[in-house]
């Protein structure tokens, strides 16, 4: 149910004026500790080594961030063979298969690992489960860099990917087979809970991770959107179309009863989206900087009279150490 303005007349534009809109800005939003760390690694590497510094894959899934780092001298490549001999290379926050740093070392390249420590934690859990003789059922999205990186931590054939409840129903492990499950860190909390419940029902002995794999930032941003979506006719999510955590925020907003659009920049906002909107929600995925949030607020302010409110559901104080080469 949409929260009304105290004065119903406030819904109407005054003569010669613009219709007001209540803007609920979710918090937490935007950069998480893993993204902050990854960007700082690139920036410090540019200071330490000088430009160019090579980065395998987008350091984070945000074009604005990538273009900003390119302007400072970072060069982004999809594969290691795009890195010339003698130049440092950085691995993205999503993580890479073990074969990638091994190949870099074999070539004599100096490399820095910007993998989010929470993704690295999943990697170590995968190794331990395989060492314990269990087969891993991994909940994630096929083709996502984090999934590729996690599968690359263990021998081929020791991990099976599931994306949906239908995938769980199709698993054909023998009764009593030693199993464990792990998850991608940027999934929908609600969807993943349902898949985990289905796994535990089908395979009662399946081993769970010691702590939830979905990262704190993903969970917090989804909870923040849940807190505002039911009050909004429309929620805008700033993020890239290949950003898993941003796409999940769109889904959360829609399930909360709001229309939702994923945008990368403020210029993508269409004026007609705001037709009939009295309460608008705004958030940003974990790879989107606050600068883009303010850009969107300014564009909305150019269309409507904005009454801005921040809705805080959690406060984040987590930080991660940098690689020892940059200490």
Would you give an account of this structure?
With 327 residues, this protein is an alpha/beta fold. It has 3 domains: 16-31 and 216-312, 4-hydroxy-3-methylbut-2-enyl diphosphate reductase, catalytic domain (Cobalt-precorrin-4 Transmethylase, domain 1), CATH 3.40.1010; 34-113, Rossmann fold (3-Layer(aba) Sandwich), CATH 3.40.50; 117-214, 4-hydroxy-3-methylbut-2-enyl diphosphate reductase, catalytic domain (Cobalt-precorrin-4 Transmethylase, domain 1, 3-Layer(aba) Sandwich), CATH 3.40.1010.20. The protein is 35% helix and 18% strand. It has 10 helices and 12 strands. The strands form 3 sheets. Strands 10-9-11-1-12 form a 5-stranded parallel β-sheet, sandwiched between helices. The protein has a 4-stranded parallel β-sheet with strand order 3-2-4-5. Strands 7-6-8 form a 3-stranded parallel β-sheet, with helices on both faces. Strand 2, helix 2 (63-72) and strand 3 (74-77) form a beta-alpha-beta unit. It is flat, with a radius of gyration of 22 Å. Residues 1-16 have low confidence and may be disordered.
């Amino acid at each position: 149910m949409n929260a009304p303005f105290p004065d119903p007349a406030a819904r109407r534009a005054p003569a010669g004026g613009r219709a007001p809109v209540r803007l609920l800005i979710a918090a937490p939003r935007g950069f998480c500790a893993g993204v902050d760390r990854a960007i700082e690694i690139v920036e410090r590497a540019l200071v330490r080594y000088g430009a160019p510094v090579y980065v395998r894959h987008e350091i984070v899934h945000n074009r604005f961030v990538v273009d900003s780092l390119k302007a400072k001298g970072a060069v982004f490549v999809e594969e290691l063979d795009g890195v010339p001999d003698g130049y440092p290379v950085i691995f993205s926050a999503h993580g890479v298969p073990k074969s990638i740093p091994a190949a870099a070392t074999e070539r004599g390249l100096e490399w820095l690992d910007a993998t989010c420590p929470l993704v690295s934690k999943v990697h170590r859990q995968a190794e331990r489960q395989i060492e314990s003789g269990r087969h891993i059922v991994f909940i994630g999205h096929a083709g996502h860099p984090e999934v590729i990186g996690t599968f690359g931590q263990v021998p081929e054939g020791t991990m099976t990917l599931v994306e949906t409840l239908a995938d769980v129903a199709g698993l054909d492990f023998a009764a009593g087979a030693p199993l464990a499950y792990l998850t991608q860190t940027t999934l929908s909390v609600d969807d993943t809970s349902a898949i985990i419940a289905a796994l535990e029902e089908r395979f009662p002995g399946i081993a769970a991770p010691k702590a939830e794999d979905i990262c704190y930032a993903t969970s917090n941003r989804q909870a923040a959107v849940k807190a505002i979506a039911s009050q909004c006719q429309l929620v805008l999510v700033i993020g890239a179309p290949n950003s898993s955590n941003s796409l999940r925020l769109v889904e959360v907003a829609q399930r909360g009863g709001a229309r939702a659009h994923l945008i990368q920049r403020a210029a993508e906002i269409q004026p007609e989206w705001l037709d009939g909107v009295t309460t608008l929600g705004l958030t940003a995925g974990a790879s989107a900087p606050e600068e883009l949030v303010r850009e969107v607020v300014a564009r909305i302010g150019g269309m409507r009279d904005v009454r801005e409110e921040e809705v805080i559901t959690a406060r984040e104080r987590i930080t991660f150490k940098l690689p020892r080469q940059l200490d």
